[in-house]
Predict the 3D structure of the following.
Amino acid sequence: MKFRQFFQFLTLAVCFLSFTSAAIAAMNPGRGNAWLTVSSQSTPQKAIAIAQKYSLTFQSVVVFSSTSGWYGVSLGWAEKSRGELFKQQLIRQGLIPDDSYFTGGKRFIEAIWSSSGVTGRSVSRLVRVARLALPESNIAQTQQPNVVNSGGPAYVSGLRNMPDSFLSLRTGPRISAREIFRMPANTQLTIVSQNGGWYLVNLNNGQQGWAYGKYVTRGYSALNSGGNQPARPVRIVIDRSMDGQLAKVAELSRSSGGFLSLRREPTITGMEVARLQPETRMTIRGKSGEWYKVDVRKDIGGWVYGRYVTLVEVPTIGPEIAQPEVPVIGPENSGANDNVVVASKPPEVDDNQDSDSNVAVNASTGGKRVALVLGNSAYQHTLALPNPKNDAARISEKLKGLGFEVITGIDGTWAEMRNSIREFVKILPDSEAALFFYAGHAMQIKGKNYLIPVDAKLEDKTSLDFETIELASILGFFSDEKRISIALLDACRDNPLSRKFARSFGATRSAFLGEGLSAPTTVRGNVLIGFSTAPGEVALDGDGDNSPFTTALLKHMSTPDMEIEIMLKRVKSDVYENTDHQQEPWNNSGLRSEFYFNKTVKASKE
């Protein structure tokens, strides 16, 4: 009996050990193979977000849960000996982190996400779809090509006379091999060897691969008389007239592979950043020739070939919208009845005033007044600012009390700030006065001013396009000749992020980034712009709940019958005195008519 119990226990132990061993090795892609892991994250959400970005370039990305409780992001599995060379190549190109590594997957428990859609613990299913495609640049050594008069210069020729025609550079001498580069006509090559109808060639950018011989001609192209020398960089002229236009990827033919390439440069040889499927939405930022510069997401942008892009029609907002033909009545043309005004709300009467005295009546122009108020305090990658969110909240409250329709955004990310701006643009039509107030970090680059969302990192030069919002893009929306437009910026605070951004360019290129904000060279339209301090100077955040500039604005905005330019002089005086002469607000006005936050008139009591 005891022997039987011992035998049963031994059997269960063996089964348990076998199951444990199988579980430990469940994600092992096979002997000699390993997973190329590029990131480990503490939450599945963070890991999947990173994996989705990589999946735009690599087709075999997988997210694994692990025994450590962390989540690994893998680009796929490969033979480790060959994969190491590929890993180093990707690191040199800046496509993956320096600390990326290969692992046998012993700590991986299961796939929780993959670009192929395959998840779970079935290693056999995962291995079939998650193999990392490696270039076959060493094929000359691993195969025995039929070498015929190898070596020497050559160039791409015989393509269709179309802007999007190209010859594919592939990882192997066959049409099914993975495409690694696209070469337009007259691209200069150096032939290394030949295998049947294919040439193994080197490009000037250091890449090597196989090209179909039908479209390769030996010698030098007449359009590339410099021989096998790197082409001189071409200056790209960008037309910004379409900035902000919405667009989408049009229907694509099967020959295109079902996707539109997003590239770093406006050329068919530009490095592929992502592959866009039909109906993918984008925002056009500029145009060069037949190429559009676009933003697809906050962190992804580049160039797409215009033939495969369809513009998305949106309602036109601005001067083109017909204004109602109604008389405009103001102090200059009101005639003899200056004392007769329809009040927008019941007058506030002082209980102590003489009953025979005149009554102050709020005299809103009767027109629509709108405002966009943004305040950023909770910066995620630098020290938080205590006051901007308080400043924005108080200014919003004050403007609502003065008859403004207000869009308010507090602690906005890049996406949230853009959404607030979009909501503001929607309420602009038919408004007689529009105001923009911003409190938070901002910076000037080459004389242009950029607002900084709370999620900005500003780690490299691409941050300017994908992590900040240019002030001019906001002002451009509401600078209508018929509308009074006002921008008040409490955004010249000392900014560690801008200094970090300057360092990313090195000492020789940091001089173009100045302190504070830059004064606009011209103020076009019926516009007034006010800064919390002089251009190029740094403003104080303040010791109280609001900054010195906002405190002064709140004090004077509701003063009856005070024209805005006079009001700003009083604001300037208060700030100058309350900061011990350290800060002096500045404004530049192009207003051609008077504006009052709280205009009143005298109406005799009957």
